[in-house]
Structure to design on (149 residues):
């Protein structure tokens, strides 16, 4: 029995060795080069109506601007308890070339006053810069900044 087991082990070893010997080593594959061919497309522009082309160009130029954020900072030139006085001063400011308007604060401090603003800003830094310039050059006497929340 021992001889049989021993001979089977030797036979298994020889079979496995001979199976590995017949296999050939694979050669590494060479990379395949791919070429891309680009074709030029020629458009027939003779059939395009020049009026339509001009219209398309104008539409491309007319891009709507994004909406400007609402103003939160206002340079105030005057403050009045009476609305008619505020509107009269607003008209004087508009005659002088300013974009004046009357502002009301529905609640909060000084809500009983009508303020006449001549410039509005949505950017805080820009508003403070304009306030500093207005006070420095004496553009309007007593100008101050109101912040709406």
């Amino acid at each position: 029995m021992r001889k049989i087991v021993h001979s089977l082990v030797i036979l298994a070893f020889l079979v496995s060795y001979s199976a590995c010997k017949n296999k050939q080593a694979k050669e590494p594959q060479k990379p395949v080069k791919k070429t891309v061919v680009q074709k030029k497309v020629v458009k027939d522009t003779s059939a395009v109506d020049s009026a339509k082309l001009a219209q398309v160009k104008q539409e491309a130029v007319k891009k709507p601007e994004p909406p400007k954020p609402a103003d939160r900072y206002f340079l105030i030139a005057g403050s009045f308890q009476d609305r008619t006085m505020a509107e009269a001063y607003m008209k004087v400011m508009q005659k002088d070339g300013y974009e004046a308007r009357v502002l009301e604060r529905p609640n909060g401090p000084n809500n009983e006053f009508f303020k006449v603003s001549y410039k509005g800003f949505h950017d805080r830094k820009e508003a403070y810069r304009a306030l500093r310039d207005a006070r420095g050059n004496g553009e309007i006497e007593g100008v101050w900044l109101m912040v709406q929340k």
